[in-house]
Amino acid sequence: MGYMDLMSKVENIELIGGMVKHFATHRGTLDNVFDLEDGFDKTIWMNNCIEKLKKDPDSAKMLEERYMGPEYNLDELMKLPKNSLGYTYAKLMKSMGFEPHFYRSRDRPSLDDLSDYVTMRVRKTHDLYHTISGFNMYIGEIGVIALNVTQYAYPAFMLIDLIAVAAACFPGLAKIPESEKIQSSLVFDTLSMGLKMGREAKSLFPVKFEEMIEMPIEDVRKELKITPIKEGPSWYQYPKLKDEGLS
Questions:
Q1: Does residue 89 belong to any structural domain of this protein?
Q2: pTM
């Protein structure tokens, strides 16, 4: 009976239960995503992420190299052609009032440990994932991190997506300000788009975006097999960027 076959899924609830229990007993302060990431440092869930990356030859090479690339200077990137990856990234960041090295105060002291390296690389490339995927910085976050989770199961993002789904299913119980409550269908649709994009795209972890910054963004997307979203939870809908002709 198909219904009884669901037990094989139920038995795996220990994976999620263990994750939640870990934070309930070792959470310390949990005021932001950095704290969430730190909570997964050198755990079985982070080790699983690293093992998935090692199975991809290009990602394994990236892990060995510990590549981080140069820092981004938004003012310099704004001098690039308007259709370039660098200009689009800089324009998006400036329109949101964001800084490239937003995580400076939480830099890991060394990249020798793979857990530290993966965390720092994810932080540096996160807003570039937004740039190439088209997902905005609000509900689109669910799509961006779903893309990431699909490809290499970064644990902090996995838990955030699970929480987002739970909050959408139980809006009356979730601790969400009334102004931020959204329709559950939008959460599920955005999550689905991110999962689909992650399955169809080339492996993104080993991509050295720093070496592609002058390329036309559409060429970058074509090379990475990404079709961006431009409607719904997309930064293409931001009025400031529409006025700039980024559409």
A1: yes
A2: 0.85
